Amino acid sequence: MVQERAPRVKATCRQGITTLVSASVIPFIRWLSGLGIERFSDVRPIHISNYIHHCKSESLRPMPLYSRLRIIDFLWIFSVETISPLQYFPWGESSLWRVSGIGETRGSSAANKNTGRTDIIPPDDQAKIFNYCEQVVHEAKEDLMVTGIDTFTRRSPKMINCRDAVLYIASITSGMRNEEVIGIEVGAWRKEVVDGVTYCWVITTEHKTGKGRVEYLVPELTLDALNLFAVCSTPMRRELEAELSDLELSPNLTDSADLLLRLEKARKDSKRLFLCLNGSGNKTERVGHIEVLSAAGSNEAFKRLAKAAGSDWPLRTHQCRRTYARCFVESRMGRASLVFLKWQFKHSSMSMTQLYASNPLQDLTLFDEILQQMTEFKIDLIESWLDDQPLAGGAGERIVELRAIPVKNRAALLAQTAPHANIRATGHGWCIATERGCGGAGLYEATRCPGCKHSVIDETFAGTWHAIYSQQRELMKIEDAGPAVRQRAERDLKVALDVINSLGLSPDGDEQEGAVNG
Asked: Which of 252, 254, 469, 478 is deepest in the core (most CB within 10 A)?
């Protein structure tokens, strides 16, 4: 086994080196040669800056630009092994990660920015579109009860609106790729009850990595939407089945390649859920039959959805998978709280490992994307801590002290440490405890956290601590609360005020005066 794998490993290494040489080394050497520079030690920051500008002028996307500049990062990292090493850190106050455009923003502001190759749908636009889709589904359900399914014809606006809305709901709540969503067959979903908890699964086929049949965990509202559209699309499927019967009985079937191809496609599409009139939503206007919605038709559907929902966002199908992964990470890290994620994973303590173990047919690549988003999130967060923003909490104070220690390559340090960092949100700060710590008591008693050695409180939670401060002021104004309540309020008031001041902020003028007088 080892002997068989060794040539593959060597071949992979050779391929990686060849790619690095052709994509990064040769262009950089040619650039330096054109400037008459013969040693890396003669390279100055102005040269690096001009080279970056030159590469960006070629309109390279973030990842190709990262690959182009990677040799410069290697020259700095391995400067000890270089005969004439670089004398200056090539990225100034930034990093290769940032310069390439993979991460253009820092810290908490990076959570909702489109820093990757695929855009993440902004939360405000996502809320508008999702709420609109829920409204469309609700109206379709009521209309179905009043008028019946025969009014949901292939050209009726209500059928098209329902299909578009269900398509978006299935995409954004599952993490499926578009080809997997439009590949869903009628009835290919199920529920199961485990330990009293109901889990909902959608079955489809994954083509990109060749995994084949996969199941995606979805919230119950997704199954409700799929069931609704399965009913609403009945007239279209009847029409397709009628065409299928005519094709099978056609006397010219064996003599016509076009009819045979159409018959095969009709048989395949007759099982699919997301159907459309041929040419509907596409740029080509061929007349005739019912078929499965295409990738182009899906993007047109999303374009209509965004416009109808009052959003200017250029919504595309490929954005849903990355948005799902990012929302998953932000929800688990306490940045945001999305209801469908609460429904999806049932228990806040359920880890991705437990989720995967519960169903071996889960899509592994989706977990890879989630883990990648988790790493990017942690890199942004830790880098924001290492910058100049004020921090509170025991660990936060130590991080501020560590800023005085020079780091030769912050980007490399973050890339190596961030994936292994244990960071959890408490709602009023970050907890980095790797052992039991307080046992979770800080989740319910916020004022325990600022003095904890595992606590980091940054600007993200400034509003929370302002609210805690105001609550304690209100408690102190209650005259018949008793001395114990007042003492506790005074103690927590001081803790909250210390946090606010540590973050470089202050309460409102009236509150500050009241605190001093109290």
From this structure: 469
